[in-house]
Structure formats: structure tokens, C-alpha cells
Amino acid sequence: MLKAKIAPSMLSSDFAALADESKRMKDCGAHLLHMDVMDGHFVPNLTLGAPIIKCLRKHTDMFLDKPADLIALIKATGMKVGIAVKPKTSVESVIPFCKAVDMILIMTVEPGFGGQKMMPDCLEKVKVLRSKFPQLDIQVDGGIDVSNIEQVAAAGANVIVAGTGVFGHKSPAEAISIMTKAVEKNLK
Ligand SMILES: O=C(CO)[C@H](O)[C@H](O)COP(=O)(O)O
């Protein structure tokens, strides 16, 4: 059964106190913590994750034209697999893999920075996926806050990444609670 999961993006947290920030979010009711490791090849402004990405790419580049093999390889290790879809990437490109993966992430901003405005057009992809895959975890990330969560939840997303919308809210616990309720209402 699908669940509402609110995942504060640690990109908006105090990096010097990540353990405390993580505990604070857990105490505020977060279901997951979202940590970005973005590939500088696709998100050119970021270099923070470069060593991790270099290591990952050493093992995964050979699979770039064989995504199904890469999904199987990751699953064989016992890990879960998700695919992120950037705003200019069509939803059709991931449909063949939706039954094999644990989650699809629909980016609602161009990845790289927190604090951008959500691109509502991207929610059309969420609607398409939800109509085809009622039990798929569909995550959204970028510009989501308490002012637009109803729209996001109505499109069918159940895993919500929010950086500014949680860390920048006067009460992160309240923001998480509002987002959780909005998603749960739409899951029923
Ligand atoms: O992936 C991201 C940006 O690429 C991050 O998750 C980002 O933190 C989202 O932040 P906000 O909720 O402020 O838009």
C-alpha cells in the first residue's frame, strides 16, 4: 500500500551540523531524509559529490546503454533502485523501467540548486505515471512547499522532497504535517 513520505532535502540544512539537523527533521516527523549526490556531468554547477560520482561511474558507465542490466545489478546487491527524470526528459523514456524500479523521481526544477520555483508542467508526468502505475512510489523534488503541496499531491506524487519548503518554514514540523496530510488525502 502506498504511503505518504516527506523527505526534507538536506541541501537546505546546516551542513556543519548534519547529524543534529537529521535528528531535528526526524523529530519533526520526516519519513525520509533526502541527500543529493548529483553527477557534475548532468548538473554542471556541482562538484561536491565528484569523488563519490567518480567512484560510482567507474562501476556504472559500462551500463549507460543497458539500463535494465544496471537495475538488475543494483538490485542484486540488495539495494533499492530509483530513476530521476529531469524537466526536459520525457516521461515515456522511463515507462519501460517502471515495473523494475522502486521509485521514479520527477524533478520539478532543473537540478542543482535549492530555492527554485516549481515547474507545474512537470506534474503532467506525475499524472501519467500515477495513471499507469497505481502502486509506484512517485517522488517529486524542487520548489515544493505548503502553498503548492495540494497541486502536487493531486497529481499523484506520494514521496515529497522539500528543502526550502521545510527548512525555511517557521515550523518545519507544521510544514511536514501539512504535506503529509495533503498526500494522504489524495491517496484515499
Ligand atoms: O534536488 C535538489 C535541487 O536540485 C534538492 O533536493 C533541493 O534541495 C530542492 O530544494 P527546494 O525544495 O528548495 O527546491
Automatic annotation (TrEMBL):
* Protein name listed in UniProt: Ribulose-phosphate 3-epimerase
Q: Subunit composition?
A: Homodimer.
- CDD domains attached to this UniProt entry: RPE (cd00429)
Q: Which reaction does it catalyse?
A: D-ribulose 5-phosphate = D-xylulose 5-phosphate
This protein's UniProt keywords: Carbohydrate metabolism, Cobalt, Iron, Isomerase, Manganese, Metal-binding, Zinc
Q: Which cofactor does it need?
A: Fe(2+); Mn(2+); Zn(2+)
EC category name: isomerase
| Annotated GO biological process | carbohydrate derivative metabolic process; carbohydrate metabolic process; generation of precursor metabolites and energy; nicotinamide nucleotide metabolic process; purine nucleotide metabolic process
Name the family.
Belongs to the ribulose-phosphate 3-epimerase family.
The pathway it acts in is: Carbohydrate degradation; pentose phosphate pathway; D-xylulose 5-phosphate from D-ribulose 5-phosphate (non-oxidative stage): step 1/1
Q: What does this protein do?
A: Catalyzes the reversible epimerization of D-ribulose 5-phosphate to D-xylulose 5-phosphate.
Q: Which InterPro entries match?
A: Aldolase_TIM, Ribul_P_3_epim-like, RibuloseP-bd_barrel
Provide a Gene Ontology MF annotation, just one.
D-ribulose-phosphate 3-epimerase activity
State if Kinase is listed as a keyword. Answer: no
